[in-house]
Amino acid sequence: MTFDRVRIEIEDGVAVLTLNDPDVMNAAGEPMLDDILAALGIVEDRENGARCLILTGAGTAFCSGANLKDRGSGKAKPVGIVLETHWHPLLRRLRRLHCPVVTAVNGAAAGGGMALALTGDIVIAARSAYFLQAFRRIGLAPDVGSTWLLPRRISIARAMELSLLGEKLPAARALEWGLINRVVNDGAALSEAMKVARELAAGPTKALALMRGLYWDSTENGFEDQLDLEYRTQRIAGASADFREGVAAFLEKRPARFSGD
């Protein structure tokens, strides 16, 4: 299947979904979001063998946010409609994806593009990349989950500063703040993401999916609820083929060969 504004490739268990409209810094309007959602369906189809997903952008940007030109010359839809029809379904599907998500932030990640970059379980950024809460520049409030993600990662004070002032956050400072995981030389974000993704794709996929679910849900659970969720989750992990393989490999003193089941 081919798409106008994204590329999707799956090899050795790693799916690479590339936002592919570099002329507008991969700004995401409805056409691109339609393509992302369709491509994500390919990743979700277990028969295609994806055990880790990389999100990245073509050219010099990751994603510059909403594509305002895609609002068209006719009667524009009310602002915010595309959140419910496109962005929110995308965020929910990424949160519950059956495998880990790595984002390779090769350049600017602004507005909704910043939020999309931060949906990665592991976020790797090029040294010249930056993050920008651009909403104030066009008179809008933060969206695409920004007001949920940012306070939990870097505190309300820093989230408020980023949003109210709309200043660029360089990758190095984002790393210092704990917003992202790694900073690499320019041009190396995708290759570093591939190294990480291959390691994850060779791992116990079901257990990794359960891990990411636990951490996502932990921000909304009380202590007792989280203990209960850990118990229920561990029972699922303990019934997997990968758990049996992991134990066997440990006892036999050999590397585990996880199948993802």
Model description:
By secondary structure, this protein is of the alpha/beta class. The protein has 2 domains: 6-201, 2-enoyl-CoA Hydratase, Chain A, domain 1 (Alpha-Beta Complex); 205-252, Lyase 2-enoyl-coa Hydratase, Chain  A, domain 2 (Orthogonal Bundle). 44% of the residues lie in helices and 16% in strands. The chain has helices spanning 30-44, 81-95, 112-117, 146-154, 156-165, 171-176, 189-201, 205-218, 223-238, 241-252, and strands spanning 6-11, 14-19, 52-57, 61-63, 101-105, 108-110, 122-126, 130-132, 169-170, 182-184. A 6-stranded mixed β-sheet has the order 1-2-3-5-7-10, sandwiched between helices. A 4-stranded mixed β-sheet has the order 4-6-8-9. The mean pLDDT is 94.
Would you summarize the structure shown here?
By secondary structure, the chain is an alpha/beta fold.
Using the coordinates shown, work out and report the CATH topology of the largest domain. Answer: 2-enoyl-CoA Hydratase, Chain A, domain 1
Largest sheet: 6 strands, mixed
Protein structure class: alpha/beta
Low-confidence stretches: none
Number of domains: 2
Rounded to the nearest angstrom, the radius of gyration is 19 Å
| Order of the strands making up the biggest sheet | 1-2-3-5-7-10
CATH architecture classification of the largest domain: Alpha-Beta Complex
Instruction: Assign the CATH superfamily of the largest domain.
Output: 2-enoyl-CoA Hydratase, Chain A, domain 1
In helices, the fraction of residues equals 40-55%
Q: What is the terminal separation in angstroms? A: 27 Å
Strand content: 15-25%
Overall mean pLDDT stands at: 94
SSE arrangement, N to C: EEHEEHEEHEEHHEHEHHHH
Number of strands: 10
Number of helices: 10
Outline type: globular
- For this structure, what is the CATH class of the largest domain? Alpha Beta
Oligomer: single chain
